[in-house]
């Protein structure tokens, strides 16, 4: 994957409890149709997830997660677009790698036992994301003394561990994890520090703020009305140097990035 311009990663939730699609795409055929629509709208990468990680989400077994995502990955190989698996489970990583995935998007930064080895066993890219706590409880009362410093140090540490495990530098993306154990002030501080963090960590950043509650808190709008806020935030992330933006609203984001490319 060339990162010469910011890439748009389209979100494909194959979960019955997904926070923004309400479970509309919980069957393989619906998921494939949605992925095709994302690609037609200009998605550069499709991120396939079988476990909802929204705050308060219920856990799913590894077997169920595999049963949700593998048929979708197999069906999407013919689209010829890079495919990403959104998982923190090594068992799911192995199954997804076998099915032909190109990127592992791990909200736990390969911390689960066996995850580093699973990722290093294949020549794929990885995204290492920061989170504080677990999705079930992470938004209860997140606390930091220095959110930017703590997240930067964590990402540097996980980047170095991934490299030491044999994952080459050019395959590592980093992500501050907006909304994952962070309140609005934390998210704003991280967003404003994004450019400085990218320079300091010397790795491409993947940024996911699409439809998230921080945008609802800023605009006062419910999830279904956060498209414009999401495109604006994706544009600002790209302007700050993000290499990949993870979004639900691909067409709107692609347009926003076209404007950035032409006018900045
Ligand atoms: C799966 N998932 C949900 N939000 C995300 C974010 O902000 N970044 C990444 N990498 N994955 C996310």
Please outline the helices and strands.
Layout: E1 7-13, H1 28-40, E2 45-49, H2 62-76, E3 83-86, H3 90-99, E4 103-106, H4 115-120, E5 125-129, H5 147-164, E6 172-175, H6 184-192, H7 194-201, E7 206-207, H8 213-219, H9 227-239, E8 244-247, H10 250-263
Parallel strand pairs: 1-2, 1-8, 2-3, 3-4, 4-5, 5-6, 7-8
The chain binds 9-methylguanine.
What does this structure look like?
The protein is α/β, with parallel strands linked by helices and 264 residues long. Helix content is 43%, strand content 13%. It is built from 10 helices and 8 strands. It has an 8-stranded parallel sheet with strand order 6-5-4-3-2-1-8-7. Helix 1 (28-40) crosses helix 2 (62-76), helix 2 runs parallel beside helix 3 and helix 9 (227-239) packs parallel to helix 10 (250-263). The chain is globular. The mean pLDDT is 93. The structure holds 9-methylguanine. 9-methylguanine (9MG) binds next to strand 5. 9-methylguanine binds next to strand 5.
